[in-house]
Amino acid sequence: MLITFAHAIDRHNLTMTFKDALVGMADPWVIVVVLVLTTFLLEDVAIAAGVALAVQGTISWSLSLAAVAGGIAAGDVGLYALGVAATRIPWLRQRYVGEKADWGRAQLQRRLSSAILLARVIPGLRLVTYTVAGFVRVPFVLFCGWVLVAVALWTGSLYVFSVAIGHALALALGIPLVLAAALPILLLALAIPAWRTLQKFGRRRLKPTAKPASAAAAVASTSAPTSAPTATSLTTALTDSPVPSPNASAHRRI
Fold first, then answer.
1. How far, in Å, are 75, 90, 91, 234, 237 from residue 95 at the CA level?
2. Which of 23, 56, 69, 235 minimizes the number of CB atoms within 10 Å of its CB?
3. DSSP string, 164-198
4. CA-CA distance, 82 to 76, in Å (whole number)?
5. DSSP structure class, residue 211
6. Distance between CA atoms of residues 182 and 60, nearest Å
7. pLDDT reading at 160 higher than 80
8. Rounded to an integer, what distance in angstroms lies between the CA atom of residue 33 and that of residue 38?
């Protein structure tokens, strides 16, 4: 009987502890921390969760947007720091730091606004663009300023898009607004990898049937003017393109 009574007390204590933990997790600041940490793993899921929590009224819209946008911006700054840390690797420093880094910094600074905005919108560009920005030591304050602008525009647009589409879905399908508001972001997060997979599958199917280009086409392609370099091609330029030297023109004149 004593053992049964002791088990009952332990079960009661465990239940109360679990309820207290759930109440603690409902605290707005705990939710903010969870949202910030989620952005480091899956940004789309963090945005969907932030919208759903704000629609439900668990946290305010301003706090939800600030937590998600702040976490995303912190992750972008972390990529910049990763690039700065890469300059401490000896073989990378010997190969790329110097005249090439100076040239790359100048090229990226000219296009910094467009590079950061495009990297935020186009999947796959953020890692290389932000890391290269840190590697060539683009001014940190300038980088952070454009990152904040890009994150605010991107996250705010997704919040507005998610709520607008969510209301329409809730009315059309008769589903709860919380689920309907998060659904567009989750579908978007699934659509991008699916589109990439379909593209790769299509390329593999077209490879065996591809015909070699004719000589005329090859001459036309080589004679066609090349487009101006963009910020997305900076990594290739740093590794392959020679850096224009100020002494080269002087040697030619002599």
1. 27, 9, 6, 15, 13
2. 23
3. HHHHHHHHHH---HHHHHHHHHHHHHHHHHHHHHH
4. 10
5. P
6. 16
7. yes
8. 9
pTM (2 d.p.): 0.66
| Among 190, 144, 233, CA closest to 44 | 190
| Overall average pLDDT of the 11-18 stretch | 51
**Burial (CB count <10 Å: 0-12, 13-18, 19+), residue 53:** buried
Segment 214-247, tens digit of pLDDT: 444 444 454 444 444 455 555 555 555 554 554 5
| Number of residues in the chain | 254
Query: Which residues have a Cβ under 8 Å from the Cβ of 153 and sit 6 or more positions away?
Result: 117, 120
Phi (first) and psi of residue 83, to 5 degrees: -65, -40
Q: Give residue 204's pLDDT.
A: 74
Q: pLDDT tens-digit profile of 51-98? A: 999 998 989 999 999 999 999 999 999 999 998 988 888 776 666 666
What the block records as the tokens of 109 is 């600074």
Return the amino acid letter for 154: W
Burial label for 239, CB within 10 Å (0-12, 13-18, 19+), is: exposed
Can you read off the two tokens belonging to residue 233?
A: 């091609």
